[in-house]
Amino acid sequence: MVVKILATADLHLGKSASGISGNFEEISTKYTWWRIVDWSVRNKIDVLLLCGDIIDQDNRYFEAVGALQSGFEKLRQAGITVCLVTGNHDHEVLYQIVGNRKYENVHLLGFNGKWEILPFEKDGCKIQFVGWSFPNRYVTRDPLISFGEIHPDPNSSVIGLLHGDVDNMESKYGPIGLNNLANVGVNLWILGHIHKPQELRKYAPSIWYPGSPHAMSAKETGIHGPLLVSVEDSGNIMVTPVPLSPIRYENLDIDITNITNEAGIRDTVTSSVLNDAIGKLEELENVSLLIYDLHLTGQHADTREVEAGAQLINEFEQEIESGTRILVRKVTIDIRPAVQNLEELAKQPSPAGILATTILAIQNGNSTPFLEEFYKQWNYKQEDIINTGTYQPLRSTGRLITGDDKAASDYILHECNRLLGELITQQEN
């Protein structure tokens, strides 16, 4: 006998995927919630686990609550048990929803920061779910310190639900020691808080961040969805990702060296995007929108021509055989001027020579008086920004924003390459 469990976290009902123009219903996290509910019913799941931040209470609160309640009712009708803990975003609202006992199939574990056990049995296969919920928005103490207050039965499988920040002991969002997770007699941990899917530990115990089942920003690239957990009566546990997110973000580097005109840039980018998407075809069955951030690299003689080509790329939209629609969210340009010998050019006492010298200095980690003046002006501008009223609340917490030397170097290098390319183009014309 096998007990089938679907596990997820960080759905943030009420939010939508960012950076997508157009009126697509798939961008709402509510869309993925209904996918999870329907998938659970269709595949005869026994238990659905929700590990906190299921509702983003600062965003479209009533729509989020209504969707969650409707989903609970459909799961109840299908005989599916729901087991959940709260996170830092929904520590109040989830208790309000399930605290009235309207849904007898829904169980909130660990209310008010107290560990709790929920036993579950199906055809002789016994499982204990243990969980702890956020009592407040901020928690600075490892919840596992008080785990000893409960005593799970060692003769059944134990699955833990927890929301928090693993191995970040300075965090105010439930700092959790990884070693603590491994040493309390739990067979499998399902964790919330981190949106990127991660398997932190494979065996004894297995520890997973399922991540957000709905990709919400360009920082959350790759496959997203819940985890299917299969527990056998022998105690064997298998975990398999289920890709259900209708949104997928990807980054793609494209080398445009030796491409001489706008049409060539457009054709190269189009073919690169389509080839990348087709290479992922087997992973796109449930993906409605595949969103790319493109990074144009290489050498080119005319930066303005590349920028003009990039404007056309931003309008890219195409559907492939999976039914997935491909969009381009952003194009960044990081090209070098087409110079045969940058070292020779740097010897010239000309504006182009000064720019070439600066580029070489940044690439080699050296400094020049011209570059030092650049850094000085950058830091002045940074201080002006920090001292604006916008940053007062951050400064009042004692966290003063400081300059970012890498960001300064990257920006100056990009601008020097751009200016040198324009100078060379002007000379050739």
Give a verbal description of the structure.
The protein has 429 residues and is an alpha/beta fold. It has three domains: 240 residues, Metallo-dependent phosphatases (Purple Acid Phosphatase, chain A, domain 2, 4-Layer Sandwich); 93 residues; 89 residues, no CATH class. Helices cover 32% and strands 25% of the residues. It is built from eleven helices and 18 strands. It has a six-stranded mixed β-sheet with strand order 4-3-2-1-13-14. Strands 5-6-7-10-12-11 form a six-stranded mixed β-sheet, with no helix packed on it. Helix 2 links the parallel strand 2 and strand 3. Helix 1 packs parallel to helix 2. The longest helix has 24 residues. The protein is elongated, with a radius of gyration of 26 Å. About 2% of the residues have low confidence.
In short:
By secondary structure, the protein is of the alpha/beta class. It is built from eleven helices and 18 strands.
CATH class of the largest domain: Alpha Beta
- Succession of helices and strands: EHEHEHEEEEEEHEEEEEEHEHEEHHHHH
CATH homologous superfamily heading of the largest domain: Metallo-dependent phosphatases
Using DSSP, what is the number of strands? 18
The CATH topology annotation of the largest domain reads as Purple Acid Phosphatase, chain A, domain 2
